[in-house]
Amino acid sequence: MLCINSIAQTKTTGNVVEYFGKEKIITTAEGNVLYHFLNGYTLQTESRTGTLFNGQDPVAWQYAVGKFVNPTKQKGDWQEINADSAKVFSGKPMRSAFLYTQYNASKEQIVLLETTGGTRTYINGLPHEGDHYDFGYTLIPFKLKKGINEFVYTKGRFGRVKSKIIVPSKSIQFTKRDLTLPDVINGEKDEKWASVRVINATEKELKNLVITATLSSGEKATYTTDAIMPMFVRKVKFKVPPAKNDFTGELKMELTLADKSGKIIDKTEISIQQRAATVHHERTFVSKVDNSVQYYSIAPALGSGPKALVLSVHGASVEARNQARAYKQKDWVHIVAATNRRPFGFNWEDWGRIDALEVLAEAKKVFNTIPAQTYLTGHSMGGHGTWFLGTTYPGKFAAIAPCASYPDISMYGFDKGDEMHDMFKAFEPIKRSANSGRVKSIVQNLKQGGVYMLHGDADSTVPISQVREMRQILGTFHPNFCYYEYPGGEHWYGDHSVDWFPIFEFFKRQTIPTNKEVKEIDFHTATPAVSSTDYWIKLQQQIKPFDFSNINAKIDKQQINIKTVNVSIMELDLVSLDLKGEITLNIDDQLVKTTSDKKAILNLKDGKWALINEINTAEKYAERQGGFKFAFDNNVVFVYATGGSESDREWYLNRARFDSETFYYRGNGSIDVISDKEFSLEKYKDRNVIIYGNASNNSAWKLLLKNAPIQIDNQQVKVGDKVIKGDNLAAYFVVPRKDSKTAMVGVVAGTSEKGMKATWANNYISGITGFPDVMIFKADLLLNGLPDMKVSGFFDNDWSAKTLEFFN
Question: What Gene3D superfamilies does the entry give (predicted)?
């Protein structure tokens, strides 16, 4: 883990540096402290929950089934604990335990809960995101009820929790915690995107708020920002004006928040950097995942003219700005550091993967780089990211250079819980849906590009056995790789842990070939939803979703010989191969004739390959596959139920809020959250939608899910022609949005109150966890795990439910 910023918080243990990359928030500027929690109770819990599946939580189960008992009334297994002199609950009891605290309020009022250290927090039985990175970002608006209020915190990374109740100074206000800012660039005249958090400590949605940013030099930019749901802190967009005059250093920038009539609600002053484009600097863009503002950092090339591009991916707890500054500027290449959405983020999988691709595309456009000279490197977790992105996207990088790396994160940090889960049949689709991160299963994709491996031989954080195994694997097939063990090198031994001269000299010798230069392809992938293309071959559909597929193709004059494994539909870009006339495709020993002037789309049906004219977008294809987590990656909007009982309405509103809090905290996200009454097909056209609620209480269900293969109401779940009855059933599933060729609908729903509350376990907003198309389970899964799974698996390619597996 990288440490290169002396002002940041650090802690060194042996050769490990915990580097947070951001100053920890230690003061409260948003109001006055009403109460510090100093006394509580801990409940020890086992942690053998696994990496790919982590759905168990005994406290969540107690709340779901109505069995939670306040430990001040019935102590049971809860043990008393007191905070230390710094008002922190810590020590051995906190390393694997729940923490309970309470507050006896004299009146009802809206307040903020500020928590550091806990992963999740229940406030009077409703789940909220915590602060397990210990950054001090978390501010949760909630309504204190008169009398006893209960707070339960799940364990964090560091075995410590600090919590207090704040009376906000204003109901609507800015907070300067966790800004995302660009640099003001000398000579550039366009406005830049930025984002700031706005606290809405009211029970009304805020719409049409206007943020005006004014530089100390007088320039202004105004933007009507995102809507903010009730009782929520959202990170919203605004624009930073360009500077008229060149300057180098810190500028002051005033932000004002006004309603649509122009009335000022709040104002604050922040600092922003103005720099030349020729030095290290930061840029921003709007992500297609959730329309949020993300940033990346640049070590720009020296001099003018077309340059190469290196994408550098950071290690766990490292900020992109500090990753970029580990590199000295070069005369031939721009070095671009993506964020993974957060310093910890998603292990460069899931939304971290998307962030890397978005930054790559943005940097290519901004710097007009030489397409054939694109490279990839990274350190520690970023070393895993380098292996993962390099193997997943053959053809995007001329060469890769993993440093201090491990290939598969699930095997590197292998949890015995996954081994335990293997005994349950219900685990198979969960495990399969995480196959896209199994680097060693798709490592053959590296064959066309160069590989340079760098590792310190004294690294005790990532054992050198990890990279030695990869050296051995590459030695069986790869013609173009280098390997170097740095003598005495610990996990981080200075900037040359990444800025290693031989890596860049190796990169200089590599280029990405054109399609017509690639005569043989050996493409491996776990799903076209993540990786579908290798030069002139595209996998459109699998026979068995999320199982490994292979396409081996070799051009022999006017014939292309192809062997496939787990391929249903594939596409060949014949036009780019510069062949002439008629082409013979020998595919799995079947001959198909076509011409070289068009793409060839091949479909396997009843054991025979045949050409088809176009992809049927109503079925699964590369741009729209299953996997529940993929419902969250296309300008997604959350739609919560407003029908049903008071409990239904409260839970599903909070459930959508909780997921939005989690996506913000873990992925620097900013998601539109609306009621079902606000939703319309046209207004949210071609956007992914997450439905919170069922057919009985969410009116958007009729618009989006009327003919879905799974139907849920308060008494039962219907899957195809099978019916599962019960008031304690929960479901996650994803289906195509019928009015779009690309958008999807995800569902978080339950039957009645127990089932609704069983949907608590939301580790789908987490790197590397496995979620198939469908999971239907009893509330008791929160306590017992996989034995209480009822249905899981993948829809057929036509999105029917025929092959879903039923248990118990």
Answer: alpha/beta hydrolase (3.40.50.1820)
Same domain, 359 and 394: yes
Position 411 pLDDT exceeds 70: no
Confidence at 23, pLDDT banded by 50, 70, 90 = low
Q: Strand 184-185 and strand 264-275: pairing?
A: parallel
In a domain, 1, yes or no: no
Sequential DSSP letters for 521-547: EEEEES-TTT--EETTEEEEE-SSTTS
pLDDT (tens digit per residue) in 670-689: 999 999 999 999 999 999 99
- On whether both 775 and 632 belong to a single domain, the answer is yes
Q: pLDDT, tens digit, for every residue of 105-152?
A: 999 999 999 999 988 999 999 999 999 888 888 999 999 999 999 999
Task: State how many domains the chain has.
Answer: 5
Instruction: Provide DSSP, 213-242.
Output: EEETTS-EEEEE---B-SSEEEEEEEEEPP
Of 525, 407, 503, 381, nearest to 450 by C-alpha is 503
**And the tokens for 632?**
């969250």
pLDDT tens-digit profile of 286-298?
999 999 999 999 9
Residue 659 belongs to some domain of the structure? yes
Verify that 407 and 461 share a domain, yes or no. Answer: yes
Shared domain check, 141 and 36: yes
Query: What distance in Å separates the CA atoms of residue 483 and residue 485, rounded to the nearest whole number?
Result: 7
Which amino acid does the sequence have at 82? N
Nearest to 13 by CA among 491, 466, 379, 382: 491
* Residue 469 CB coordination number (10 Å): 15
| Domain at 176, CATH number | 2.60.40.10
Q: Residue 231: which domain range? A: 172-276
**Could you tell me how far CA 269 lies from the centroid of its own chain?**
31
**AA letter at 112:** L
Look-up: residue for tokens 């300057």? 247
Tokens 């993929």, located at residue: 630
Give the CATH number for residue 417: 3.40.50.1820
Tell me, what's the pLDDT at 16?
38
Domain-embedded: residue 801: yes
Q: Which of 579, 577, 587 is nearest to 536 (CA)?
A: 577
| Same domain (yes/no): 605, 643 | no
CA distance 686 to 354: 19
| 789 falls within a domain | yes
Q: What is the pLDDT of residues 34-69, one digit of tens each?
A: 999 999 999 998 755 677 888 889 999 999 999 999
Handedness of CA 631, 633, 637, 642 (dihedral sign): positive
Q: For the chain, give the mean pLDDT.
A: 93
| pLDDT score at 14 | 35
CA distance 786 to 263: 54
Phi and psi for 306 in degrees, rounded to 5? Answer: -60, 140
| 428-464 burial: b if 16+ Cβ within 10 Å, else e | bbbbbbbbbbbbebbbbbbbbbbbbbbbbeebebbeb
Q: What is the mean pLDDT of residues 341-354?
A: 95
* Count of alpha carbons within 13 angstroms of residue 524, beta-carbon side: 18
Output DSSP code: residue 439: G
| Distance from C-alpha of 57 to C-alpha of 782, rounded to nearest angstrom | 5
pTM over 0.85: yes
Specify whether 214 is located in the same domain as 297. Answer: no
Q: For residue 19, which of 294, 351, 384, 314 has the smallest C-alpha distance?
A: 314
564, 579, 612 - which closes a domain: 612
* Residue 368 pLDDT > 50: yes
Angstrom distances, CA of residue 133 to CA of 18, 27, 158, 167, 295: 11, 17, 8, 24, 20
**pLDDT tens-digit map of 235-261:** 999 999 999 999 999 999 999 999 999
The CATH number of whichever domain residue 86 belongs to comes to: 2.60.120
81 and 183 fall within a common domain: no
User: Residue 219 in contact with residue 185, Cβ under 8 Å?
Assistant: no
